[in-house]
Fold this protein.
Amino acid sequence: MLALLLPVALAAPDEASGVVTRVIDGDTFEVQGFGTVRLADIDCPELGTADGSKAHAYATSWLQSNLVYLDVDDRTGQDKYGRWVCVAYLAKPDGSINLSRNFNRMLVDVGQACLWDFSNNEFDPASWWGGQIPGSACVKVNSGSTTTSAALFTTPYSSGSGSSSAGGKFVGSVKSNKYHYPSCEWGQKISPSNEIWFSSSADARAHGYVPCKVCCPP
Ligand SMILES: [Zn+2]
């Protein structure tokens, strides 16, 4: 009986909880005693842009120093940067979980994030709205472009040739001409939608990219 109940328990929206100690950007934050959380299936504009600053301010206003409950992705757990992929719920004033305050959904509802359904995790973002993504939601499609039509909702992350992290050795941004070791702090700041992966430094240079001066790849 216990064995049957366990998977259900693991999939609960309150698998983990803790106080947010730092909001890194709109969709990434640190939770005391837990680690870094990357909100699942959404994408906020990059920091350093006006929209990125707005998303960061919005997330900070709701999360900083507050208790959150986390539904942790049971399929992949952590992404390639070691961040826990989660759906986050805010707490009620009494400290219990507030299931009507799904923060991933809140970011999309207020236009601070686009939906981006990574098919490699357990979550189905449509379920955040009871099964139907609202037509007003910004939805990111495979090319990294966005649309507000739910009809165009597709799952990205099927690894396209040349742009997948699978087997990639160095990472760059489609918005710059630098390439990095994946461990580089600047490489890690690249939004997943802007990442371009190279199998070798020769591959990167062939695409017109130059080595980052911080991590100094070959
Ligand atoms: Zn670098």
